[in-house]
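Worked Example 4.2. Consider the chain below.
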Amino acid sequence: MYDHLLYEVHDPVATITLNRPDQLNAFTYAMLAELRNAIESAAGDPAVVGIIITGAGRGFCAGLDAEVLAQASAPGQPDREKGVEDDELPGLFSYFLSIEKPIIAAVNGVAAGGGFVLAALSDIRFAGPDAAFTTIFSKRGLISEHGSAWILPRLMGAGRALDLLWSSRKINAEDAYAMGLVEFLTDGDDLLQQAGDYIRELAANASPASLRDTKRLVYDNLGMTYGPALQQAHGLQEASLLRADAVEGVKSFVERRPPNFDRLGKGG
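Applying the procedure from the previous section yields the following structure tokens:
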């Protein structure tokens, strides 16, 4: 289906593997378009409750391919973000925030530049023992980009965010976990298994509609003051009480059985 990705669905998990291992899975414009297509396919598939992004070989993603970066930084380039609609927020992965399903980065190796942003703008990060992170931008004469200066202070605090963005130093998985960038550390070959188990646990127990609404609230609330945030939450809470999932959640609790919630996606 794709030239630069592997895409697999094993209900309830969609796994997207960046597949340019000889280039540490560095992005080309075609690869970025394929990634978006795969994400949107998973979002529309009722068999998918959550999406995992990982890398083939020893790297997660080294950012933009060197040739693409040289082209993008050349004078007179009118459109560096191919495929971005006029009404969208700028940034390679800003659309992640509007995807209604959990997106998990399973970081198996180095995540640098755009690969760092890919991990940071995922909803949750699992890191294997070989994971490493570097923003790299300042060492290339660039500033933090694609939402990194927005999301990092919210994940780890302003001081730690500035440290990584200024210094572009590389940190390992343990440091990333201690700083709040990574939520889960894994051992050896358990990375995809544990990330998949996380989604399977959600699928077995949580309403996909509730996951969607909660994700929306979390990201919307990052830019809101207290009053409007509570008003939005109240509206979504009232709407959730009228859904079939609310009836099923109570019924499954009373009957002491796993819930059977509706899936999200086409026909779901």
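The domain at 5-202 is CATH 3.90.226.10 (2-enoyl-CoA Hydratase; Chain A, domain 1). The mean pLDDT is 90. Compare this with Example 4.1 before moving on.
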